[in-house]
Structure formats: C-alpha cells, structure tokens
Amino acid sequence: MHFAFRPLVALVLAGGLALPLAAEEISADTVVARVGNTEITLGHMIVTRAQLPAEYQQLPDDVLYSAVLDQLIRQTAVVDSIGTDLSLGARLALENEQRSFIAGEALSRVAERAVTEDAVREAYEATYSTDHPDKEFNASHILVETREEAEAIIGELESGANFVKLAREKSIGPSGPNGGDLGWFTEGMMVKPFEDAVLKMKPGEVSEPVETQFGWHVIKLNDTRLAEAPRLDDVRADLIEKIQQDAMANAIEDITAAADITRPAVDIDPALLKNRDLLND
C-alpha cells in the first residue's frame, strides 16, 4: 500500500514550511533530510514530484516541497523500522517492479533515439506516398431486416423510385433520416461484406442485397476520389508514436533473439499460477 498524498498536503497547510536551500548549493545529490543513516536527496524529491497526479502538481511550489519531503521522511522511517524483512511475495513483487522499471527505461531511450526529423519525414512519405494515394468512396445505403425487403427496394429503384426518399422512409439504420448518406470513407472503415460490394461498384450503381451483422443493405455508390495527403504537421504526433512503437518492438525482438535463454523442462500445472499459498514463507 502506498502512502496517500492528500493527508500530507493537509499537514503541510496546517504547519510550517521548510526553508529552501540556497541556489548555489543545490544538486540532485544534495541531502535534504536524514532518517537514521538513510539520506533523502533533492533528486529523490524531484522524482517523487514528477510522479504525482496532475492536480497535485498544480499546488504552489513551497507547499509541494514540504509535502513531498514529509512523505519521503515518513516512508523512510517506516522502511527503516522493518529493514529488509519482507515476505517472499513482497520480495518477488519488488523484483518484478524493478525488472519492469529498468526494461521500461531502456525502451524509453530506444524510442527517444528513434525520433529524428529524417525518420519522421520517411514515415510520412511511406504512409502518405503520392505514388499510391488512398481511394475514397462516397456511398449511401438503405438498411432493412430481410433479403426480401432489400429485393423489393431494388425493384422500386429500378422502377424509378428516388433513393434518398426510400432511405428516409424504409431504412432502419441511423443514416436513414439523412437519405442513407454515409459520407466519404476509405478501405478498412466499413465491415468487410459492405466494403467488398463497394469496391466492385462504379459511381451511380446500386448493389444487389448485401448481408452484414446489421441486416441487409442496398448500397448506392455516389462517387469516388483520390484522398489528399494530410499536412506533415497535422500527423506528426501519430507518426512519432508509430516510429517509437516500431523501434521498441524491433529492439525487444532483437534483444530477445540475442539473449541466452533457457527454459528448464519442468512439468508445471498452469493452474499453479493461482496458488498464492506457495508464497507463504
């Protein structure tokens, strides 16, 4: 269980504030408190503050300084009172946390190094290459419950009925009131049977009945166009995220492949993962 921060803030507000150190004396290694033989440094405080929820980071600096220091002092005092006398489960949990933290730190460095302006521009060109622009489709549909209803609607359309009017009258889909208009979309945005039908159509054509999990569709392809690539600055954040994700995934794969890994042939029942009694020491 972690120390709650809110009560500590309340204590600081009710009491005195610690005096700040002179600017020329400070560094991350500056000792701000000692609990027994354990030193608490300014670096510990900086890291603690950075991990606080956003609402606490909005508090005045002097309030946060005293509250963070008070928290670290109390935690250290509690830790010193029990030393390293942790249960087996607690020790293993601590090892897992350390492993996860160090791995995360290593991957963060990989992600940070992967982002360069050249990498961003290369990702932009690869994703939005003008040599193969995406095709966009504009379609309308009438959604009904049965194939028979869809076939009857197609018959009416062949007899000269107005598609928009029929959609408003008979479609059970949310686009019905808008005449069945679905707007512009690209491949991958519609369910596969619907998309497959649209890809075979030419502008102005009406489909045969198409079944999806939503019901039966009568589709009209209104128009197609080539999608314009977005501006680099508009998609920069998405490109950076993909660059970083790819870099971390590749690093994990390469590092794991190069590691000396052995898996002893031990016959373990997977259900034992639920047996916390094994952690009793």
Strand-residue proportion: 5-15%
Poorly predicted sequence stretches spanning 5 or more consecutive residues: 1-7, 11-17
Secondary-structure element order, as H and E? HEEHHHHHEHHEHEEH
**Number of structural domains:** 3
The secondary structure category is alpha+beta
N/C terminus separation: 20 Å
Q: Looking across the biggest beta sheet, what order are the strands in? A: 4-3-6-5
Rounded average pLDDT? 90
Gyration radius from CA atoms, angstroms: 31 Å
Walk me through this protein's architecture.
The chain is α+β, with helices and mostly antiparallel strands and 281 residues long. The chain folds into 3 domains: 80 residues, no CATH class; 97 residues, no CATH class; 92 residues, Chitinase A, domain 3, CATH 3.10.50.40. Helices cover 49% and strands 14% of the residues. The protein has 10 helices and 6 strands; from the N terminus they run H-E-E-H-H-H-H-H-E-H-H-E-H-E-E-H. The strands form 2 sheets. It has a 4-stranded antiparallel sheet with strand order 4-3-6-5, sandwiched between helices. A two-stranded antiparallel ribbon has the order 1-2. Helix 1 packs across helix 4 and helix 5 packs across helix 10. The longest helix is centred in the middle third of the chain and has 27 residues. The two termini are 20 Å apart. The N terminus is likely disordered.
